[in-house]
Amino acid sequence: MALVHQSQRFELQGGRNAEAPGGWHFRFRKPLASASQPFEVDAERRVGWGELPWGRMLAWSAGMAVLLAGARLLRRQRTERRRAEELLRLGQVARLNTLGELAAGMAHELNQPLTAVLASTQAARRLLDEEPPETGAARDAMAQAALQARRAADVLGRLRGTLERPDAARREPVDLRQAARRALHLLEPEGERRHTAMRLEAPEQPVRALADPVALEQIVHNLLMNALQALEDVPPPRREVLLRVRAQDGQALLSVSDTGPGIPAELRSRVFQPFFSTRSGGLGLGLSLSETLAAGMGGALTEGDAPGQGACFVLSLPLA
């Protein structure tokens, strides 16, 4: 620090060389507030690296780092908790949806055999109440009821086996022509009630597919019921369902086509979606479950080209 008057300089307090390199240089100059003593005070200071309060600076930096790390950890924990809660909620929703689809699928698959059992037993009771009782026809009706009851038991058994051993699907050589004939036999009364002609075209040489017999019967039954229901608004003389069995390119093919109104082009991409149906009151699970069953047997269920304006679905399975 020095007093300066014109060209004269009086040093009051010595210090380091202000011109030395490194550090930070501070300087100020101010006149004294006295007219009789026109001096100016000239102060100069250089702060070097060694003069900084490194201990306090490091302590402050460490404290801020700990604070920021704690805040970041807290935010990450909150994010992880929200993510876990969202995953838990989605898992619960998925389980509820799965249970709902499973219950709807069981209701869909068991509705037909249980209805047939009820109809057959009621018919047998009426036949036995007649004078004289129609024992032969009643015996046939009870046999049909027993057949449908076994079919319902097979459906539940296959479902239980799928839940217990999802990958242990039982596959064996199955004659597609015989499977189609059995399905037509089961739905023959339904076809007569709806005034629908059902035909089967199959080669004389058996076409054997590697499939689960119960799952195959479910698929054909679902396809036939869909075809019969699609013909409700068609005049009776034009109601026809055609089943075709053939072998092509190493695949056993079974197609079901009808002469109904068909499926609109804008809806064809959605026919295999669960709970989607073009029919009012339909559950929309028949085709979805059939596609899943076909895939489980190593095959596929696709929409084919109908001979007319109706709908056609093709089931392809590996040849035995």
Characterize this entry briefly:
This protein is of the alpha+beta class and 320 residues long. It is 48% helix and 20% strand.
How many discrete structural domains? 3
- Counting DSSP E segments of at least 2 residues, the number of strands comes to 11
Alpha carbon gyration radius: 44 Å
User: What proportion of the residues form beta strands (DSSP E)?
Assistant: 15-25%
CATH topology of the largest domain: Heat Shock Protein 90
User: What is the topology, as strand order, of the major beta sheet?
Assistant: 6-8-9-11-10
CATH architecture annotation name of the largest domain: 2-Layer Sandwich
Helix vs. strand class:
alpha+beta
CATH homologous superfamily annotation of the largest domain: Histidine kinase-like ATPase, C-terminal domain
Number of helices: 6
Tell me the helix content.
40-55%
Which residues form runs of ≥5 with pLDDT under 50?
none
Question: What separation lies between the terminal Cα atoms?
Answer: 108 Å
Q: How confident is the prediction overall: mean pLDDT?
A: 81
Strand/helix succession: EEEEHHEHHEEHEEHEE
Q: CATH first level of the largest domain: which class?
A: Alpha Beta
Bulk shape: rod-shaped
What can you tell me about this protein's structure?
- 48% of the residues lie in helices and 20% in strands.
- It has 320 residues and is α+β, with helices and mostly antiparallel strands.
- It folds into three domains: 2-51, no CATH class; 55-164; 172-318, 2-Layer Sandwich (Heat Shock Protein 90).
- The protein is rod-shaped, with a radius of gyration of 44 Å.
